[in-house]
C-alpha cells in the first residue's frame, strides 16, 4: 500500500501559491511565521518544533480551504529537515475546532462533495500517518472533526476546564462518523468506550475525557504552552527513525484500511449526504446555530 | 454478508402460533402483554420501550424453547414500528439467567444438538445485531449464556449486590466458550481482562464486574427499574438511523465472523459435546446441581 | 497453520545432549533439578508445578545459548505429563532478564543473525503458545526481551519495588520492537498504552506497570514465592483441556501472524541489524554498559 506521506494532494491551487512546490527538505527561514489564511504556522528551528495554530473565525470549522491549507502546511513541515515535531492548537478562545464545515455539505454539487471529502481524508491520512511528533494542545471545545484532529496526534493535552468538551457527536446531528473516524477513536479509548460514546454522540467535558483516556492530561489554561513543550521534548528525546517505524507499525492497519477503501468512502459520503433527509437535518442544524449566534 | 435482522428463524412452530408470521411493522395492541410461556413481553407504546422479562423457573435456563421464544419475541419487536428499545430483565428473584440449558446438551441426538446450537446462534445474532436500543437490567446471577445476553446489549445495569455475579464460567465445567462468546466479551472488557477471566472461568461479583467494565453501573435493587428507564431515555434521544448505523459499524466485524463460520461452529459444538468425557462432565455437573437443590 | 507446540527446534546441539530427545510424556525423576547451564529447572511432581529460574550472570541476557536452553527446557516440561504449570523467575538479584544479548547482534555473520533471530522467535512461539499455565515472578528489572517473556505468560506478579522497572525500551536504543513484540504488548495493555509506551521506549517502575496493566499485581519481595504458588494453584483448579483451548482461542491470531511471516521477520531483522547506523548505535550502547559496570 502507498505510504500516506507520499499521497498526491488534491488538485487545488495551494493556499500560498507556489510555496507548496518547494522541494522537500529545503529549510524555511528560521522561526518565521509563514503567511497563509486560516492556520498560523511557526517553526522554532532551535528545537525543531513547529506550531500550527488555527485562526479561522468564528469556530475554526474545517472548510475545504482550511483542510487544504492544513494538509499543505503539514506536508511542508514534514519535508523540512529542521522540523521534528508539531504542536496543534487554536488561536481562537474557547474553541479548538468545531469540526467539518457543514456549509460544505449542504446544497452543493457531487463534484464539490467529492473534493471536500477527499480533503477530509487527506488531512487525516497526513496527520495520523505523520512522521513528526504530533501533540494536540486542546484549548477549547473540540467536537466531531476537531476531536478527530486531536485523536490523530501522538499525545493530547487539554485545558482543565469542564466547560470544554471533546467527542465525536455526529449521531446527535443525525449523521454517522465514517469508519476511519471510528477506527481512530477505538485506537485511543478501546472498543467499549467507543461503542457507547459514538452511539450516544457524547461530548465529554475535559475531566471525563481524561477519565476515558480520550485525552492524556489536563492542565490549567495558563500552563498549556509550557506543558506541551515539555511533552514534546520528552518525545523528541527518542531517536526519530526508531520512533517513526514504531508509530507506523502501530497505525498502519488503520491507515491501510482507508487507503484500500478511499473511493468507496467518498461514494458513501456523497450518497449519504445527498439524501433529502440528511440535507434537511443539516439545514435545521445550521438554522439552530445561526439562531444561537443571533 | 446477510444482515442479522433478516435471518430465517429455525423451523420450529413458534411459541404463540401464527403470531410470528404477522407482517413486519404491524403494531401490537397498545401496551398489551402478549402471551407466551417463558418470556413476558410488554410494550409501552407511548415511550416505544418494550420489556422482555424472563420467567422460566427455576433459573431461566436457555432451553431450545426459551431461545426460540426469545428470537421470535425480539424479531417481533424489531418489526414493530412502535418499538425503539427493549429492556431485558428477569422476573425470577436472584437470577437473571443461568445460561444454556445443560439438559439440551446431554444424551441427545445430533439433530437435536444441531437445532439447539442454531437457536443459540440465532438468539445472539438477533440481539447483538439488533437495531433496537437494548439495555440489560441484570437483577440476579448471570453466568455463561446469561452473561452473553447481558454482554450483547448496548448497556448493562446490575443490582448492587455482591452476592450476584456475572461471567463466562464455561472452563469451570470443563467446556469452552465459543469464539463469538469470546469476541463479544473482548469487545466489552478488552483482550487482557477477557484472557484471564475466560481461562479462569471467573464469576465476578457485581462490584468487581463494574471495576472490570463487564457492567456499566450498579444500582440498588429498588432503583433498577427507574434507572433503566432513564438510561433508555438517554439512548432514545439519539436519532435512530444514525445510532443504528453506528452500532452496526461497531459490531459488524464480530457478527460477520459468526455468519461466515456458522456451520463450522455447529459442527464444532456437536463434535465437542458428543465426546464421552464432555458428556460425563456435564452429567456430573447436573448431579451436583440436583444435590444442591435437594 | 502449524500449532506452536510442535514446531521443530532450531538445529543446534541441545544444551544437555540427548536429554531433549527424550520421548514426550516420560516423567523426570521426582522434583530433581536437571542440569543445564543458564536456566535452573525444577519440577515439583506433587503439585505439577515447575520453576524455571534464570541464572545467567551478570544480567540474564538472552543469548543464543540461553534462548535455546529456554526453548528446550520448556518443550521438555510441555511433554512431561507430570507438569501442568511453570513459574518463570530469576536467581539473580535485582534483574529478571535484561533482554536480548546485544553481542549476538553486533559484528556477526548473516548466518549467525538468522540463527539468533530464529531462536528468539522460537522462544516466544513456545512460551506464548504454551499449554502449561505460565506465571512470571518478575523479581527485578525486566526491559525489552525480559519484558516480552513476562508479557507472554498467563499472569505477572512483580516485586513491589519502584526501583524495578519493566517495558519495551527498544526505541531508546534506536531500534524497533518487531511486530509480534508489539502484538503481545497490545494484547496485555491495549492499543493506546502500547502506542505511547513503545514509541517512548518507556521503562515503567513497578507501581506504574501495575496501573497500566503491564503486570497483574505487586507483592513484597519476601512474599513473591508464596503468592506465585497461590496464583498457580488458582489457575490449576481449572480443567487443563478447557483452559488450554480457551488460551489458544485468545492467542491464536497473534501466534499465527508470526508463523505466517516468520521468514520475512528474519529477513527484516537481518537487514535492519546489518545497517552501519544500527551497528554503531549498538556498539555505543555496549560501550556505555561497560563504562557503567567499570
From TrEMBL, chains A, B, C:
GO terms for molecular function: delta(3)-delta(2)-enoyl-CoA isomerase activity. PANTHER family: ENOYL-COA DELTA ISOMERASE 1, MITOCHONDRIAL, ENOYL-COA HYDRATASE-RELATED. Homotrimer. Transmembrane segments: none annotated. Keywords: Acetylation, Fatty acid metabolism, Isomerase, Lipid metabolism, Mitochondrion, Transit peptide. Its main location: mitochondrion. The gene is Eci1. GO terms for cellular component: mitochondrial matrix. This is Enoyl-CoA delta isomerase 1, mitochondrial. Its EC number is 5.3.3.8. It catalyses: (3Z)-decenoyl-CoA = (2E)-decenoyl-CoA; (3Z)-dodecenoyl-CoA = (2E)-dodecenoyl-CoA; (2E)-tetradecenoyl-CoA = (3Z)-tetradecenoyl-CoA; (3Z)-hexenoyl-CoA = (2E)-hexenoyl-CoA. Pathway: Lipid metabolism; fatty acid beta-oxidation. Belongs to the enoyl-CoA hydratase/isomerase family. Key enzyme of fatty acid beta-oxidation. Able to isomerize both 3-cis (3Z) and 3-trans (3E) double bonds into the 2-trans (2E) form in a range of enoyl-CoA species, with a preference for (3Z)-enoyl-CoAs over (3E)-enoyl-CoAs. The catalytic efficiency of this enzyme is not affected by the fatty acyl chain length. GO terms for biological process: fatty acid beta-oxidation. It is found in: Mitochondrion matrix. CDD domains: crotonase-like.
Amino acid at each position: 500500500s502507498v505510504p500516506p506521506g507520499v499521497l498526491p494532494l488534491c488538485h487545488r491551487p495551494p493556499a500560498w501559491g507556489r510555496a507548496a512546490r518547494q522541494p522537500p527538505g529545503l529549510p524555511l527561514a528560521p522561526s518565521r511565521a509563514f503567511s497563509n489564511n486560516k492556520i498560523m504556522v511557526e517553526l522554532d528551528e532551535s528545537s525543531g518544533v513547529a506550531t500550527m495554530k488555527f485562526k479561522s473565525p468564528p469556530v475554526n470549522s474545517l472548510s475545504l480551504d482550511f483542510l487544504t491549507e492544513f494538509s499543505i502546511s503539514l506536508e511542508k513541515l514534514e519535508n523540512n529537515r529542521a522540523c521534528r515535531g508539531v504542536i496543534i492548537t487554536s488561536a481562537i478562545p474557547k474553541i479548538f475546532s468545531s469540526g467539518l464545515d457543514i456549509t460544505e455539505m449542504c446544497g452543493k454539487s457531487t463534484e464539490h462533495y467529492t473534493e471536500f471529502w477527499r480533503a477530509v481524508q487527506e488531512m487525516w491520512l497526513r496527520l495520523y500517518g505523520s512522521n513528526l511528533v504530533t501533540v494536540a494542545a486542546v484549548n477549547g471545545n473540540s467536537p466531531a472533526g476537531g476531536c478527530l484532529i486531536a485523536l490523530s496526534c501522538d499525545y493530547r493535552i487539554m485545558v482543565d476546564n469542564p466547560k470544554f468538551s471533546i467527542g465525536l457527536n455526529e449521531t446527535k446531528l443525525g449523521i454517522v462518523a465514517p469508519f476511519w473516524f471510528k477506527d481512530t477513536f477505538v485506537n485511543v479509548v478501546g472498543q467499549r468506550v467507543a461503542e457507547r460514546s459514538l452511539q450516544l454522540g457524547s461530548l465529554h467535558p475535559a475531566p471525563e475525557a481524561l477519565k476515558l483516556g480520550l485525552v492524556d492530561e489536563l492542565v490549567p489554561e495558563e500552563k498549556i504552552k509550557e506543558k506541551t513543550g515539555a511533552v514534546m521534548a520528552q518525545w523528541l528525546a527518542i531517536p526519530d527513525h526508531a520512533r517513526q517505524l514504531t508509530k507506523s507499525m502501530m497505525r498502519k492497519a488503520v491507515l491501510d484500511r482507508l487507503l484500500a477503501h478511499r473511493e468507496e468512502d467518498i461514494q458513501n459520503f456523497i450518497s449519504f449526504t445527498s439524501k433529502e433527509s440528511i440535507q434537511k437535518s443539516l439545514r435545521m442544524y445550521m438554522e439552530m446555530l445561526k439562531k444561537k449566534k443571533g
